[in-house]
Structures are given as C-alpha cells and as structure tokens.
C-alpha cells in the first residue's frame, strides 16, 4: 500500500493504535469528556471583572471613580406620558405619588426621586435608586404595572440598568438557544445528504458535540488563569461544531473513497489517517494560530474567546485522529447503516468530481481569464470596505422590539441629560480640594458655552477623602453620533487639561459609557492591522512549513486576505449603508459594530483554512505521486470539491441561522460569515486557487521539486487514484 511520502506519520501512528485498540481509544475519549465535564461542575468559574474590560483613558477614569467610592448606584427610571393627546400633568403627578408609595417600601429600593418634567411638559420621569446588591427588579416592575393599570389614561413604563440588561440577556439567550436548536438538525440533515446513512451522518455531530462539552468543562478551571466571559460560550459552541463536523467529514469521506477503491477496511482507515488526518492536523494548527490573534487585543472577552476556540479545535483534532478511527474500525461497514434509501442511491450514483470537474475545465484551460474575472469580482465586493465606519454597540443597535429599549429611547429623547454623559474625574492631593472645585466650576461654564456639550445637571461629587472629584457633563446627542467623539476629544485635549493646569499634582481623566465605547472602538481600529498582519504571518509560516513551498504560503495568505476583504465589504454595504434592511429586518445604525471585523477575520480565516489545507493536501499528494501539475490541480480540486461543498454547506447554513436573529451583532456576524464562506468555497477555492496553481505550474512547490511523472502504474498507486473513476490518464 503506497502512501504519499511527504505526509506526517503522527496521525498515522495515532490512528493505527486507535484502530488496533478501538475499545481503549473509545474509553479514553469518554474518560476525557467525562473528566472535563466533571471538572467544570466541581470547580467554580472565575468570571471577568469590570476592571478586565477597562481600556484607555476611560478605563483610568473608571478606576479612579471605583477607588474613590464614587460609583453611581444602579437605578431604574419610570416614564409617565399621555396615552393620547397632551399630558394631564396633575394626573401624572398623582401617578408618580402612587408609584413612590408603592415602590418606596420595597426591599432594595434606597430612594425615589421627585418627578421631573421634561419633553416640553409632555413627560414626567421618576428615578428610583437601588441597592448595589439588588439583582432582581421584578417587584419594582410589578409595582409599576399596578400603577399603570390604576391610571389607564397614562402610559407608565419602566427601564433601567437591571431591566434593560435583563431584557437583553433574555433576548440573547433566546436567540442563541434558537440558533443552537436549529443548527443541530440542519447539520444532521446536511450530513445525511452527504452520506445517505444514519451512522455516518451522526458520527461528525457526535464528535463535535463531545468536543464542545469537553471544552466547556475545561474552560472552568482554566478561567482561574484567564478569566471567563460567559457570553463567549455560544461562540465556542459555534466554532466547535463547525470544525468538529468538518474534520470528521474529511476523514469519513476519504475512508469511504478508499473502501470503494477496493481497500480493506483497516487499510482504508490508515490511508485516511495518512492523508486527511495529516490535513486535519495542519488545518487545526492553522485555526489555532488564527484564533491566537485575538490575544493581541488584550480584552477580557477576546481572551476568553481565544482560549475557548483554541481548546475546542485542539480537542476536535485529537478526537478526529483517535476516537473517530477507533469507531470506524469497530463499526466496519456498519458505518453505512442504516441507509436512507433515496439519499443512499443519490449519493452512490453521483460520481466524485463529476460536477466540479466540468466547472474546473474552463478554469484550467483559460487560467488567466478565470483569474482576472475572479479578481475583479472579489475586488468589487471588497471595495466598500474602504469606507467602513465602526462604533461600539449602543442603544441604537438594540432591537426596538424589546419594550425596555423603546422606553429607554423615549427617556433619552424627553430628558437628554439622562442620555449621553461624559464623566470628568480629577484626582489631586487633599490640600488642593478648593482649587479643584473652582477648576471644575470653570470647566462646567466653558463646556456649557460649547455647542458640543451641555452643562452639568448635578453638582460635583467629591470622595470622602477629598482627593477625587467627579463632574458629569451631558451631550445632546445619541451615543453613536460623530459629534460625541468630537466632544470627548475637545474635553480630553483642551477643556479638561486646561481647567486643572494650575492645580499642583492633579490628574484628570474623561470617562463614561460613551468614552468607553470610543476608546474600545479606537483600540480595535488601532490593533486590527496588527491582528491582520499576525494572522497572515502565521498563515504563511504554517503553510510554508507544511508544504515546504514559498509560493503556496504566499497564495494562501493572499486568498485569505481576499476572503476577508469580501466579508468586510459585505458588512459595510449591507449594515452601514443599509442595503437589504427590509429583507433582513433591521435598521442601519450607519456603522459596523466595532468588535465584529476582528471576530469575522479570525473565524473566517480559521474555518476557511480547513478546506484550503484539505484541497492543497490532495493536490500535493497527487503531485508527489508523479501526476503532472496541471492534472494534479484539476484532479485534486475535483476530488475534494464534494467534501468542501458539504463542509461549507454546514458552516453557511449555521451562520445563516444567525442572520435571522434579532440582535444586530448576531445578524451582522451571520450575514458576513455565511456569504463570505460561500464565496470562499466557490469563487476563491474553485476559481482563483486552481487558476493560480495552473499558472504557477511546478513553480508552485518551489523550492521543492515535484516527483517525476509516474511510469509504473502497477506499483506507483497512481493507477488506483485515477482509474477507479473510469478515466485513464497518461502520465
């Protein structure tokens, strides 16, 4: 039995042992999964704290406020408006009094303010200050609803930190639960279409699910080294299911092909290990390198996502070269049972490469034209990225279908001081307290005179030790308005430093929610080129080392960059410029949410490298067997096109589910990744890649030299690779 001589022996040795000792391999895998899940349930999770998300000047301001004990206690706001027509202020005040009486005695309520009149006299606002330890606003909501029922002529609604956060958490959980429940049957259906047999279709899903379970368990003890962000769990599930299914699919398809060629069952498993298993190892390494780029950002969420993604990929790779071949060896031909009659006949009758071969023919014959057309198409789709604007998620990006969000928007419209606020924090020696107070009063006057800022709505707050002072300045704009960034820049570079310039030993920092969003978006813009460069560099190193080819490494990096450009251009076109708003059911905020480009970059590069490595490994296998380069490209891509299509179909379908969710972040991610992966698996890998490889010819493998053309068909193994398709080729 001949094997390509350039392939690694690592997966072959692991597979051979697993196939020879299937029960040990299966038991070892079960022990790993059970132990990981047990560790997750027995050890407490170390979740990321507020200080882990602090960045830039806003982070320093937040730290000063926290150290001084000047943090604002949580609060809820109750908005009272007329159900129709002008507001009856007297009736509204009676409702406010009833509300104060009902809420004021509840546990966890520290104070209820006097009603404020706003909106030109058309709205009243009651602020409820809460105990910092209060976690459930349910009793307050119930009291508000009772007051609303007692005053049918008024609209009495509540929104605040607890209720809005709770509503968003519920919506996100519902969205992700819906996506997870939908993705599993969709994945199973696609696997049935690929294999036509229940066991073969279920094995990839089983391996992916157990890999995800083990990862989630192991992330708990690891959280004591890298704090865990619970919001990334669903992303880890997404990545784990994608790579787990892909790796199993690659392995199963090759094992099936070798059995169809007349190999014995164990030989088929070993050949799959030496070929697809090697590709899985390389692909896993490429995905891990891509995900490691997230550490560059230095953010708690991205660090947690990087750890989870790297871990789930490593475990999925381990399972694909150990427990999967053990299961295949133990099941034997039962892996193709029970067969789904119609699907089985359909998959059996479709010749491998029959469709893709016809598509590849014009590309191979006219590579220059194919490359030119594909480059123009990719360039046109990527062009909008040059005008991409990014901003952190804000009130405008939240679904309007959430009642609390609608209420909060109405509050900020009627009471601008309750909206966008800048926090000016000054830390100075106690002896300078009077000078700091005068400086902040002067700052307030200059801010009020600026068209970008309003004055302070509350007096300056001073810490008990007298060293830290806090001034709140409101801005009459939505948080995503470009003028907010201008106002913060004015404060940070001019007004605030000038105000405290004469105070000895004073430190000033401008923070607040808007400043935090601006700083985080700025951090991502600053480090995105570094992440792109690092991911491409690691791609170059992995591909160059694996294939011992400089051109292959450069081509791989260029194709990844093209796919990323398409994804970024698509996000800009659809979500920033508002195309397809009606079809996708969203309202454009006029920008792309800032964390998504980085996330889409690493996920897209990582997942697309799965089938890129698989395709190139097959081409190189044929080249090493003596097949001429042009024929090796055509045969290698045609042979793997069906597997790549199945793998891409799984990822596209799963991400497309996210495009239907209500949260704008999920929708952006789903649209960008589903369409980009679809184009990557078709236009990029079926047109651009073969065109470039054909044009390069033998130079594609420089500095290594391809083996000479095979002559002895009876011993080289090429006869089996080619003639089993009924298509003899002179080599």
Please tally the β strands and state the result. 11
Q: Which structural class is indicated by helix and strand composition?
A: alpha+beta
In the CATH hierarchy, what is the class of the domain at 1-42 and 196-325 and 332-344? Mainly Alpha
Mean pLDDT: 84
Percent of residues in β-strands: 5-15%
Globally, the shape reads elongated
The share of residues in helices is 55-70%
User: Spans with pLDDT under 50 lasting ≥5 residues?
Assistant: 1-7, 710-731
Rg result: 30 Å
Q: Report on the biggest sheet.
A: 5 strands, antiparallel
Q: How does CATH name the architecture of the domain at 1-42 and 196-325 and 332-344?
A: Up-down Bundle
Straight-line distance between termini: 20 Å
Please tally the helical runs, counting DSSP H or I stretches of 4 or more residues. Answer: 25
- Within the CATH hierarchy, at the fold level, what is the topology of the domain at 1-42 and 196-325 and 332-344? Multidrug efflux transporter AcrB transmembrane fold
Could you please describe the fold and organization of this structure?
The chain is an alpha+beta fold. Among the domains are: 1-42 and 196-325 and 332-344, Multidrug efflux transporter AcrB transmembrane fold, CATH 1.20.1640; 74-166, Alpha-Beta Plaits (2-Layer Sandwich), CATH 3.30.70; 404-514, Alpha-Beta Plaits. Helix content is 65%, strand content 8%. It contains 25 helices and eleven strands. It has helices at 10-20, 22-42, 56-68, 89-103, 138-150, 161-195, 198-222, 233-260, 265-292, 300-321, 323-331, 341-349, 354-365, 367-382, 403-414, 433-449, 482-499, 513-547, 550-576, 581-584, 596-624, 629-658, 664-696, 713-716, 718-723; strands at 75-82, 109-112, 116-118, 123-130, 154-160, 390-391, 421-427, 461-462, 468-474, 507-511, 592-593. Strands 1, 2, 3, 4 and 5 form a five-stranded antiparallel beta sheet that branches. The protein has a four-stranded antiparallel beta sheet with strand order 8-9-7-10, with helices on both faces. A two-stranded parallel sheet has the order 6-11. Strand 8 (461-462) and strand 9 (468-474) form a beta hairpin. The protein is elongated. The protein starts with 9 loop residues before the first helix and ends in an 8-residue tail after the last helix. Residues 1-7 and 710-731 have low confidence and may be disordered.
